[in-house]
């Protein structure tokens, strides 16, 4: 990939060759070698905003947010245009990672995005969004609520392989990597997680339910939600996709948390909770019309340790002939 040529000023051939070599190294994960070359490029053309933008981008890849902020400020100081410059977007991500809220607000406003005024953390409602957890590994696309242009609060219950929990806030990149289209035709870009921004104290449990009907399953989800936490029927909300499909345009459900999660993997990778399915599965596994209901369900529950068993006992006691559970285990 190449990230230069935004400025009206024409950089030297040496600068271009050095920068091109640096991004070839980035593509191969050689960040240290790439950094040395990008520093050299900045020495060659210190007046060029692209020199500092490229350094800021490298520091973002390395999660070195202090250096990303320093280089990003140099880049925006040399810009020759006001709005829509990616320099401001990357600076906004770095400032958010550092909890530098005045700079984050300025960056989003300079980029052309409306953000609420204030001194503390940006807390707005930018709608629902799918985010890809662990994009470099056994990735999983879950749904959440956008708090600002680069943070999502996770409202699905992630599978334990992701290492993420319900209620966590993740920092995400600004370039979409795939799309999800709801049954109503609404299109949501999928953003890749950069890192965990705020952890959740709420553990994740997995339990095997015996739910005679969908209404029995729904009753548990409502009871846990009423307590302020979440339950999700993974047997119907998780589908297994290859990486190419996960990063493409996929039809999803309503776009609500728990409606559908995706366990994306490279072809041939073990399938986690979806193991045994074919490499491509583009449909719901349990809620689609005409699919026979199976009473045994694998369910994820996000709730405190001292509360989860009581919720399950109360749910089962309401209809003992139709409801039961077993194998309750904390998994994340």
UniProtKB/TrEMBL annotation:
Positions of region (Disordered): 251-281
Gene3D superfamilies: Tetratricopeptide repeat domain (1.25.40.10)
InterPro entries per UniProt: TPR-like_helical_dom_sf
Protein name according to UniProt: Tetratricopeptide repeat protein
